[in-house]
Specification:
about 675 residues; alpha+beta; Helix Hairpins; D-amino Acid Aminotransferase, Chain A, domain 1; OB fold (Dihydrolipoamide Acetyltransferase, E2P); seven-stranded antiparallel β-sheet; five-stranded mixed β-sheet; about 20% strand; elongated; binds 2-(butylsulfanyl)adenosine
Length: about 675
């Protein structure tokens, strides 16, 4: 038989846990970290396992656990669950306000304004403070008993707080799935190869319709109360807003955006304020609900059919609409990525007319199974780019073909490619493709590539826009006279630029390979390729097996190199560059194993005085070293500059040889 001490500990733990739930959900002011909360739950669970006779249904450990149901039973709503009339404009709101003012014979009405949450209406019945039944709205009179599922929602108390709650209390409110949880849930769905939910409301509805509460328990559901149904045992205050405060004191969550506003002006101002905030709110809302705050006035106004005359829902412009997918066009971005764009029959959604929406990439098109001619659901939330949410399959006519991104670039005709583990398909004509021209030239001219002094991004844009250059090879044909004619470029700058171009012709093979802007080939990989192959011809003609034999070169890089040098357009440009005189010192290639730093792994950390960290890396690689980004047991040397980070201390811990800048320079023979 458990003693009093155990019973007492159990009660203290339950109170503590409920108290933290209240702080977290209702007051939005958590006091302890999640880990501490979990610890309390674990302790309570452990004691309850030891003394099962002390388990009560309102214990916070008892949210999940019931067996799956065969079906949901019906629930009759004693007080019907009503719906709301809609307002779509300021004028509709003014008409509503006028009806109220005339009805109650007052000049200015106080309204309780609340976000209209986009979830599911739920009725929660508390008997002597204990949650005994939860039901969906259904048709307003008959709903479904979803008690077991509702019990899994942490934001819903299993027991009311305090001791002044009524004997019978039916709380009405909305079960929602917060946007963040919805996104995560959909990512999990996709990972599991299951269909994602279309929107948070569907996800919330689907989650509550589970016959197995264990599944519902894994879904990120939440709840806000917005009113009461049945009540017995106490008299309520006179204002709706005060009733809400009472609900809050009993542990029910109220939407923090709720406010009492004065008159129609107050309604309009509140609408504007919430519309501006809409996208930043944690939950999806589709409008504002205005309720006459004074309950006596509510009684005067009464009801029409199934909706109160004292409340109205001002709807935001719909964020989702259906329209026809007229065509799928392919755009090539500055970096060469191919983006499929949906051309749509213009549709008014989210407050603007939308005629295009992004389809992101081939995977997205496949996921949606979007085909030309389909009816699609378009979503535009705030300033977010319009998205195609889903295809209405039931409206598909005939047998339209599946859409495939093209095998050649719609801008330049080069082959397109998509590499393993990448979602994007891109054009491989990097040096030649008009869409990528500016970016390719900017990259080519940059300091770490050909280091063309004075040729900044702005000037590149100007040169291309003025038609002076088309490809990077054209850069070397520019003359001072042509440059002078450009706006904002003086004679001195023009001469300096031509001189810088001339100077850049003497480069290194690694710089040149990097400057070509081959997808996925950074400086380090360019250096690795150069060290291994020693000549441009060797790199250009290397086959897959040869490339894969190079240390640190994997199948993705190999495929990138091969595809790049397969494009005749790219080969043309390379030839032109060599023809204008770009050259580099011949690499007297010693077999890798004979290079002085062969087989040694370096890490460079901190700021070096005489050279950039990157230059140091390249110089080390030229001597056959491998340069890594993180210190491990396999590291042979760590080069430490000024203000090194944790890598230096880690090296010390592992007993790895540390070199300062002086030692490095000596090693490099400088
Ligand atoms: S009050 C008599 N307040 O909107 C008033 N409803 O169209 C009945 N809803 O089924 C509801 N947020 O699911 C009210 N702050 C809010 C609401 C809200 C969302 C939903 C509710 C109801 C529907 C009515």
């Amino acid at each position: 038989m458990p003693d009093k001490k155990i019973q007492h500990r159990i009660e203290t733990l339950r109170e503590e846990i409920n108290g933290h739930n209240y702080l977290y959900y209702v007051l939005d002011a958590p006091e302890i970290p999640d880990s501490e909360y979990d610890r309390l739950l674990v302790e309570l669970n452990k004691i309850e396992q030891q003394y099962p006779e002390l388990i009560t249904t309102d214990s916070p450990t008892q949210r999940v656990g019931a067996m799956p149901l065969d079906s949901f039973s019906e629930v009759q709503h004693e007080v019907p669950m009503l719906s709301l009339g809609n307002a779509f404009s300021e004028q509709d709101m003014e008409d509503f306000d006028k009806r109220i003012r005339e009805g109650v014979e007052k000049d200015c009405i106080d309204y309780a304004a609340e976000p209209k949450l986009d979830g599911l209406a739920i009725s929660l019945l508390y008997d002597n403070g204990l949650l005994v039944r939860a039901a969906t709205r259904g048709d307003g009179r008959t709903g479904e008993d979803v008690t077991l599922n509702i019990r899994t929602i942490d934001a819903i108390p299993l027991k009311l707080r305090g001791n002044d709650f009524p004997a019978v209390l039916e709380v009405r409110g909305e079960v929602v799935m917060p946007k963040e949880g919805f996104e995560k849930l959909n990512q999990q769905q996709l990972k599991k190869g299951e269909k994602p939910f279309v929107n948070p409301r569907n996800a919330a509805a689907g989650s509550l319709r589970q016959l197995d509460p264990k599944i519902t328990a894994t879904r990120p559901l939440s709840f806000y109360s917005y009113g009461i149904g049945l009540i017995e045992g106490i008299t309520l205050p006179e204002k709706h807003s005060q009733v809400m405060e009472r609900l809050k004191s009993w542990g029910m969550r109220i939407n923090p955006e709720s406010e009492v506003v004065k008159g129609i002006k107050g309604c309009h101002a509140y609408y504007e304020k919430l519309a501006a905030k809409r996208n930043d709110l944690p939950d999806e809302i589709d409008g504002i609900v205005y309720k006459v705050d004074d309950i006596e006035f509510q009684n005067i106004m009464g009801f029409v059919s199934r909706a109160p005359r004292w409340a109205i829902a001002r709807k935001f412009p719909a964020q989702e609409e259906m329209t026809k997918l007229l065509a799928i066009e392919v755009q090539v971005g500055r970096t060469g990525a191919l983006t499929p764009v949906a051309r749509l029959q213009p549709v008014f959604v989210g407050g603007v007319t939308v005629s295009n929406a992004t389809l992101h990439n081939q995977d997205e098109i496949d996921r949606l199974d979007a085909r030309v001619g389909d009816m699609v659901i378009i979503r535009r939330a705030g300033d977010v780019i319009p998205q195609v949410v889903s295809v209405v399959k039931s409206k598909r006519e005939g047998k339209p073909r599946r859409f495939q991104l093209p095998a050649t670039c719609p801008v330049c005709g080069s082959e397109t490619a998509r590499f393993e583990d990448e979602a994007v398909t891109f054009c491989t004509g990097g040096l030649y493709c008009e869409a990528q021209r500016k970016e390719a030239i900017k990259h080519f001219a940059s300091r770490r590539a050909m280091n063309i002094d004075g040729l900044g991004d702005k000037l590149v844009e100007q040169l291309v826009d003025e038609g002076l250059i088309n490809t990077i090879a054209d850069l070397y044909k520019i003359e001072v006279e042509q440059l002078i004619k450009l706006e904002r470029l003086g004679e001195k700058s023009a001469k300096n630029l031509v001189a810088a171009l001339e100077k850049s012709k003497a480069t290194t093979l690694a710089h040149f390979v990097f400057a070509l802007g081959i997808h996925n080939i950074g400086e380090t990989t360019a250096q690795t390729l150069t060290n291994h192959f020693a000549t441009l011809e060797n790199i250009m003609h290397a086959d897959e097996a040869q490339l894969l034999a190079v240390p640190d070169i994997g199948p993705v890089v190999a495929e990138n190199v091969i595809t790049f040098f397969k494009q005749s357009h790219n080969l043309d440009v390379v030839k032109q560059l060599l023809d204008v005189g770009i050259s580099w010192p011949k690499i007297k290639k010693k077999p890798v194993e004979q290079q002085p730093l062969a087989g040694k792994t370096f890490v460079v950390t901190g700021t070096l005085e005489t050279m950039g960290r990157n230059d140091a890396k390249v110089a080390l690689q030229e001597l056959g070293a491998k340069v890594s980004g993180s210190v491990s047991k396999k590291t042979d040397y760590v080069v430490v500059g000024e203000n090194p980070g944790s890598k230096a201390s880690k090296a010390q811990d592992l007993g790895i040889t540390i070199l300062d800048e002086k030692a490095l320079l000596k090693l490099l023979g400088q």
